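> example.struct
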């Protein structure tokens, strides 16, 4: 029996995944977590075979969680299920240590296939993303290339700016100092060629809206 931990801050998503997994006689949900701290407690206590992880979590990002889990137990497989843009995040989650990325909009039909593919030792990505990685294609959109240049932490800060979160609240949410967040903001502006905080806010808001459309 393969034991699976579900990490997502939406109860309905956790319930939906649990029901789909529960229909498979060789798979079982051994735990659920809504935030990073609880996920790490569950990892230490129950040692699942596989963790399904959302990228947006309270108390830290899914990317941070992947890196923490990998450092704790390299044998735990990880699959990301997220609404974020696969073309932007797939390579990041694989680099962090996960073995696949599935968009939540496709998860109801594909989550079991994704789980089985990861358990078999393979990487799970959409066909479009697989083709992009295999061909080494560089996105022709200059704005996407600029966003790709951001580090994982810078991308996290950029997304929170676009969601309207203030600098002090970003610092609190990420457990960092305000000065550190301001440093990240300065690096983001430089990488994106932006001259002011206003331009940064507008660019971030537009980018978040594009992800949601």
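> example.seq
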């Amino acid at each position: 029996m393969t034991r699976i931990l579900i990490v997502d801050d939406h109860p309905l998503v956790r319930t939906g995944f649990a029901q789909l997994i529960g229909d498979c006689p060789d798979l079982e949900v051994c735990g659920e977590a809504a935030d990073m701290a609880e996920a790490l407690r569950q990892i230490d206590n129950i040692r699942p075979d596989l963790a399904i992880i959302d990228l947006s979590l309270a108390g830290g990002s899914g990317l941070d969680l992947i890196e923490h889990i990998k450092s704790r137990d390299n044998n735990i497989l990880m699959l990301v299920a997220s609404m974020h843009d696969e073309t932007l995040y797939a390579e990041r989650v694989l680099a962090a240590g996960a073995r696949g990325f599935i968009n939540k909009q496709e998860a109801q039909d594909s989550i079991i296939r994704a789980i089985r593919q990861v358990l078999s030792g393979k990487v799970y990505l959409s066909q479009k993303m697989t083709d992009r990685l295999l061909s080494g294609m560089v996105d022709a959109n200059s704005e996407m290339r600029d966003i790709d240049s951001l580090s994982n932490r810078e991308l996290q800060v950029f997304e929170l700016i676009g969601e309207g979160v203030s600098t002090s609240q970003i610092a609190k949410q990420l457990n960092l100092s305000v000065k550190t967040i301001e440093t990240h903001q300065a690096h983001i502006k430089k990488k994106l060629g932006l001259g002011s905080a206003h331009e940064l806010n507008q660019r971030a808001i537009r980018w978040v809206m594009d992800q949601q459309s």
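> remarks
The chain has a mean pLDDT of 88.
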